[in-house]
Amino acid sequence: MKGPDHVPDRAATAARVTTSATARARARTLVREQWESSSRTAREEDAIDLLLVVSELVANAIRHGNGPAGFDISLTPEGVRPAVGDNSAVVPPEAHGCGVLPSGHHGSGYGRSLIIRLAREITIGTHAGTGRTIRVTVPLREVPERPEDTGRRT
After folding, report:
1. What is the pTM of this model?
2. What phi and psi, each to the nearest 5 degrees, are found at residue 99?
3. How distant is the alpha carbon of residue 118 from its chain centre?
4. DSSP one-letter code for 98
5. Where is 125: in which H helix or E strand?
6. Nearest CA-CA partner of 57 in 68, 48, 41
7. Where are the alpha helices (DSSP H) in 32-109?
8. d(CA 83, CA 124)
9. Average pLDDT, 10 consecutive residues per value, the chain (154 residues)
10. Counting beta carbons within 10 angstroms of the beta carbon of residue 134, is it exposed (0 to 12), middle (13 to 18) or buried (19 or more)?
């Protein structure tokens, strides 16, 4: 079982998740196959937030971390927990900022701000001085049952 300090297997997963599109597909599959059921569906806005956060994490690994070096995604009681490893051990000081969007276009900063706004429990761990892993939790809630659906189950 994977504990909170689990580091994604950098060698095994780097070849499988090299783009944001591949990471989004893995996130969609996890939610559909392991979270949703015949009686529970994820709220659309939460699913969209998850896909946006996963895209930004992988895009940041590509742009600022010398490429993705690992990807893991799992369910928690609070939601979905993606972890993206990259090849940079540098942790920028603004990584845990307040999520304020940049006032002007400076070429970067939007992805990090979106991640901070949409995710919870953001942690950044470095490993062996060769890279870092960024883990976040994206809350996932189910679509509430409509009043007209109550009492109709057979």
Report:
1. 0.79
2. 85, 15
3. 10
4. -
5. strand 120-127
6. 68
7. 44-64
8. 9
9. 46 67 96 93 96 96 92 95 93 63 60 90 86 95 76 51
10. buried
